[in-house]
Amino acid sequence: MVVLSQPVLDNFSTIKTCKFPTSSFYCGIPVIDLLNRDAKTRIIKACKEFGFFKLVNHGVPLEFITGLEAEATKFFNLSQMEKEKAGKANPFGYGNKRIGSNGDVGWVEYLLLNTNPDDIHQKAITIPGDAEKFWSLVNDYVSAVRNLACEVLEMIADGLKIEPRYALSRLVRDEKSDTFFRLNHYPPCPELQVLCDRNLIGFGEHTDPQIISVLRSNNTSGLQISLRDGTWVSVPPDQYSFFFNVGDSLQVMTNGRFSSVRHRVVADGVKSRVSMIYLGGPPLTEKISPLPSLMEQGEESLYKEFTWSEYKKSAYNTRLGDNRLAFFEKS
Ligand code: GA4
Fold it and tell me: Which of 9, 27, 271, 329 has a Cα-to-Cα distance from 188 of 20 to 30 A?
């Protein structure tokens, strides 16, 4: 970690990277058109090769997206005191710079929410201003993205010849599904101008523990993914599309045919980045193991048996960048 002379940036990590990501955007990100008849095959290929893809022609109404982005921006523009009224992100609420509870920090503030509106912790969150409007936009957005995630999970099941077709989608559709929703704001960091060839970490590298994550951001860059050879590449932002990440649980359920993607976000010196992430997880009691219909004769699971609740508990005791699945791999 490099500690900078600017006191404001003390304790934050930087990475050596290109200061002008637009000139180094990676053009190999798989783009899947949901309306294309080869979409299913392409999704499988992208999940195997990258654990990541961009989805276009997704059918989620633009007004759901722009409406929620406007509300999120309104929230993040409030004074620090007002934002803190939402309550600490423990487990759900507002967080600033601290990520998780094991000492990770990033140049980010966020609202971490549960997608179940009846969750008691969720009910304790107070959104200043027009809270009813805020929650109604969150619910519309989350329902639309959940449907999209289920459609993609069913295409994955089909493509991998998993039976029944809803073996994966039922987990995020279940009313007890442990699915999170996260609104992130990466404020511009003017102090960055003085760091000639370094970038500030907004959200450190990690894989998502869940099954599948669906990310949408405004037009500010920052998201980077690690390719299979370990090279980090910058993802060109696209406010009209969704980016799908394979999570650790899907890696296990496919017995390693897919692997979860390591990703991170770097802060910008001038522009603010707002992202919304749907983190589709199974019910707490669900067993996470390779799906029987996918296994070839004689194929053994690469992982020990565990439930989502056990994995989650273990994950929440790790640091962001740790390889959380390593504890569950058979030796
Ligand atoms: C990464 C994916 C999701 O954003 C998240 C994160 C969670 C948190 O921010 O509280 C974790 C992180 C994430 C994995 C390891 C633990 C837990 C921070 C952290 C250090 C909400 C999630 O489910 O796992």
Answer: 27
Q: Which of 182, 262, 273, 324 is catalytic?
A: 273
Quote ipTM for the complex.
0.99
Instruction: Give the Cα separation of 314 and 182 in Å (integer).
Output: 20
- 47-57 pLDDT, tens per residue? 999 999 999 99
Residue nearest to atom 14 of ligand 1 (CA): 320
Q: Which residues of 104-122 are buried (b: 16+ CB within 10 A; e: fewer)?
A: bbbbbbbbbbbbbeeeebb
Share of the chain above pLDDT 90, in %: 85
Q: What's the 37 CA to ligand 1 centre distance in angstroms? A: 35
Q: Which protein residues are within 6 Å of ligand 1, measured from CB?
A: 99-100, 102, 104, 112, 180, 182, 206, 208-209, 279, 315-316, 318-320
Query: For a substitution probing ligand 1, which of 279, 309, 312, 327 has the most ligand atoms within 8 Å of its CB?
Result: 279
Q: The whole model's pTM is what? A: 0.95
CA of 75 from ligand 1 middle (Å) equals: 22
Please write the tens of the pLDDT for every residue from 211-237.
999 999 999 999 999 999 999 999 999
103 Cβ contact partners less than 8 Å away, ≥ 6 residues apart:
319
Residue 312 · residue 279 · CB < 8 Å: no
Condensed to tens digits (0 to 9), the pLDDT of residues 152-177 reads 999 999 999 999 999 999 999 999 99
H-helix segments, the chain: 39-49, 62-76, 80-84, 120-123, 131-159, 169-173, 248-253, 308-315
Would you state the structure tokens that stand for residue 52, as one six-digit string?
Answer: 């990541």
